[in-house]
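Lecture notes, part 5. Sequence design as translation. It can be helpful to think of inverse folding as translation between two languages: the language of shapes and the language of residues. The source text, in structure tokens, appears below.
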């Protein structure tokens, strides 16, 4: 598999997730709640997840996302490839409005990252 063929899709999905995050960031309603582990979750987390999940669906590679469904280990342990996503890494920083949060997307092959994209919404920087 030539994983680099996925790079444009991943970069575009990260940029679209950044746009979703920034729309919420510049609003007055984060719709913040607490997850089961007492970490915060906002509508920006959910919207970024949905953008990324929708874009990566075309790759036919399973997705493991912090904001997605809980995939039991028994199911995912057999995945040769999968997307590991944190659609808004740094939700506490997002809530503080300090700009120190990112969108993280990695392609994992046999438990090792083989492609990664990190996007910084407030600066527009994208690293891959």
């Amino acid at each position: 598999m030539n994983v680099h063929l996925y790079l444009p899709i991943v970069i575009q999905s990260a940029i679209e997730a950044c746009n979703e995050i920034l729309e919420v960031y510049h609003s007055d309603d984060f719709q913040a709640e607490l997850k089961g582990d007492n970490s915060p979750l906002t509508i920006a987390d959910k919207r970024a997840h949905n953008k990324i999940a929708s874009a990566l669906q075309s790759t036919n590679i399973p997705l493991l996302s912090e904001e997605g469904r809980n995939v039991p280990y028994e199911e995912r342990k057999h995945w040769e490839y999968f997307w590991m996503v944190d659609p808004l890494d740094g939700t506490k920083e997002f809530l503080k409005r300090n700009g120190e949060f990112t969108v993280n997307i990695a392609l994992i092959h046999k438990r090792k990252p083989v492609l990664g994209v990190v996007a910084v919404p407030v600066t527009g920087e994208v690293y891959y």
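The translated text above is only one of many valid answers, since several sequences can fold into similar shapes. The chain has a mean pLDDT of 95.
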